Each structure stands twice: as structure tokens, then as C-alpha cells.
Amino acid sequence: MDFTPEATAAALAEAADEAMRRLTPDWTDRFDDGFDRAAWRLLIDCELATMAFPPALGGEGLDVDALGALAARAGRGAVVTPLVGTLVAGALFAGDESAATHWADRAAVRPGRWFAVAVGERGRAPGDPPQVRISGSGPDAKVSGVKTGVCFAEGAAGLIVAGPGTSAVVDPQAPGVRLLRTPSSTGAAEFTVTFDDAPAVTVAGPAGDLYRALQACYADGLLAGALDLTATHVTDRQQFGRAIGAFQAVAQQLADVYVVSRTLNLVATSAAWRLATGRDADEDLATADYWTAAELPAALRTMTHLHGGIGVDLSYPLHRYFSLAKDLARFAGGPSASLDALAGVTVPQTQRMVRACS
């Protein structure tokens, strides 16, 4: 497989890199406003947040493989915004003209507008069949059930709800929608959302898969950014007259983290490419979920250790990276549930039955 980015994806990655370099993050921010408003305004002003939307809604209609580069660059900078949810919404609207027309006034993304994605459910991995119910179709649909880990739901223009076989867009202020804010490691806004026959508009497209793919790209960028930070630290930090990165024990640990980073990059890139080309991405998405849930937090623990005391300083960037990694691990279902989901798509049913009985 040749994963060399196409010209559009490469240009988007370059534009995203240029924009992110303008940011001056406050690493101690606990996001009382829900997320980094300055970063979101920058993404809007640079017209990056709208790239997934169809041209009729002010976007470019880019596919998920190109959008993955944007999500990865946001992750590399540990940027906390509703970017992933908004990109998912844009990609869905680009593939469903009817839903896009219905939500046209809200889909004009501005600094005060964004979209959130409701995928997670209690005790279930993201790849498990959703238990939320979506009845009816088009603008007459109804949604019932509970979604957890819904980032930036309050104030969103719409909630993209992943259901069994279909998806729906719900106004978070509509009757039958209840938001309960829940804790997050970063302090960013996260909610449990209860739907009770909430009015909705169905939208074609795999909302859950798009969300998982772009979250994997974000996690890939997050790990790469933390690795860059750590490599710089162990190069500059002197001990016994030499850089600590020159010691074999440190170099070996950093090499292990590099392997995790390259693996996550490969599987995230592959998942996005498969979705963009209409191929089955179940195995890659399940692998990315597990790698995010199990290996990402472990890699961040190693890098925190290599930093020493500064690694847990709230004013030092690595603390934000570690906090995001813990949140992403929850969104991916946690190590056990994501491993079960991975086995479900990679191990034939007959082998699972034999192993269960042995």
C-alpha cells in the first residue's frame, strides 16, 4: 500500500501546521469555557474547520483520509476544540444532500457554532452495535437512549448520534434531550446525553466509523507531539556531563515509544484510507481503538517518567498530552472492552468458541 498523501491532503496538512504554529496555549487552562476558544476561532478564521462540509455549505467536501491530516496536526499540538466532531458532521452532510439542506442554517460553522458526536455507550466499545434507538426517517425521526463521553455537547449546533445502521442529527436544545456534564482529565466539557423520543433528522453515512477514524488520527498526532517533546528534553537535559538521551536505558524506552507511535500512525492512516476508498475498515478501526486504549496511556507514562518531575508540572505541555491520552483511552472503550472488540473482528467465531470451551 502507498500511503503517500495526495496533493490535497498534503496541502491541508501544511496549512494546518502553519495555523497551529500561531497558537500560544495556556497549558494550565482547565477549560471553564468548555474548550480552547482561541484555538477554535483560529481554525474557523483559517477555514480549516469547514473543510469537510460540501461546497454549498462553505466547505471543500474533503474525504476522511485528507481530514485525518488535519486531526493529526491538532493532536500534535494537543489542541482541545470541537474539531473532530465538526469534521464528522461535515463529512456526513457532504454525503447526504437532504440532511445538509435541512441543517444548512446551523451548518454554517462560525466561532460560536460546532458539532458534537455521540458514539459512546456505557459498558460498550465504540465498535459494538449501538443500543440507542433511531425510529423513523428523514426529518420525522426520533432518538431514544443514552450516550456517554459526548464532548462539547452543550452549545453545539447539533449532535451527531450514531445508531444501529443509521445516524441522526439532534438539536441539543430540543425537547427530550438532557445533558449531564461529567468529569474529564483535561477539564474540557464532556457530557452524558439522554434522549427521550428527541426529534431528529436522519443522515446517511457511518458516523461512528468516521469518528473513530478521526479520533485515531488525533491520537496519532498527540503521541507524535509528546514524542517530539520528550526527544527534545532528553537531548537537552544533561546528567553526569552528557545528555540523558545518550544513556542506553533512556534510549531503549524512547525507542519503544517510537514503535508504538509508528504503529498507531500506520493503523490510523490505513483506517482513514479504507473508509475513504469504500473498503472494509473494521479491523483497522478496532486495532486503532485498542492501541489508543492500551498503548497510548502506557507510552505517555513512559515519557512522563523520562521527563522526571517537570513531566507532572501543570504548566508544562506534557501534562496536557497525558490528560488527553487518558480521555482518549476512555473514548476508545478502555483496554479490556477494546481488546474484546478487536478479537470479535479478527478471530473467526469458530476459533473463539473452541478457545472458550478449552
UniProtKB/TrEMBL annotation:
Q: Which UniProt keywords apply?
A: FAD, Flavoprotein, Oxidoreductase
Task: Supply the InterPro entries for this chain.
Answer: AcylCo_DH-like_C, AcylCo_DH/oxidase_C, AcylCoA_DH/ox_N_sf, AcylCoA_DH/oxidase_NM_dom_sf
Q: Which domain of life is it from?
A: Bacteria
Query: Which molecular-function annotations from GO does this UniProt entry contain?
Result: acyl-CoA dehydrogenase activity; flavin adenine dinucleotide binding
The cofactors it requires, by name, are: FAD
**Residue ranges constituting the Acyl-CoA dehydrogenase/oxidase C-terminal domain according to the UniProt record:** 212-336
Family stated for the protein in its record: Belongs to the acyl-CoA dehydrogenase family.
Q: What is this protein called?
A: Acyl-CoA dehydrogenase
